[in-house]
Amino acid sequence: MQPISCIKKVNMERDVFQAIADPTRRAILVLLAEDAMTPNALAEHFASTRQAVSKHIKILKESHLVAQQKAGREIYYHLDPLKMKEIDNWLEQFRKLWQDRFNQLDDVLSKLNRKDK
């Protein structure tokens, strides 16, 4: 049996939907959609500590929603549009379902409107 210190650290991937379930993480994604930012710059937008924001960034990174890029001594985080496209693709099935339902409702309302005239 190997000592604990010799065991390789497993790269944990997080579920993207758990990551976006938190309102702070969604707000971070909105900020990063506009421009890449450092953790300090992101933290300025929230009432929580920089450590708390860093934990949110870590979760977003583990779910592959954000990527990091080093520039000198700073680390900038930016949105990964490909991962966001995966979310959009999943949501598309619901958009179609609701659009079909709205179309049915429009038909019913049109029929009712014609009966009233």
How would you sum up this structure, described in words?
By secondary structure, this protein is mainly α. It folds into 2 domains: 1-79, Winged helix-like DNA-binding domain superfamily/Winged helix DNA-binding domain (Arc Repressor Mutant, subunit A, Orthogonal Bundle); 81-117. The longest helix is centred in the last third of the chain and has 36 residues, at 81-116. The chain is built from 5 helices and 2 strands. 61% of the residues lie in helices and 10% in strands. The chain is elongated and about 70 Å long. The protein has helices at 16-20, 23-34, 39-43, 50-62, 81-116; strands spanning 66-71, 74-79.
Shape category: elongated
Largest sheet properties? 2 strands, antiparallel
What is the total tally of β strands?
A: 2
Summing up helix and strand content along with how strands pair, one would put the structural category as mainly alpha
| CATH topology tier name of the largest domain | Arc Repressor Mutant, subunit A
Widest sheet: strand order? 1-2
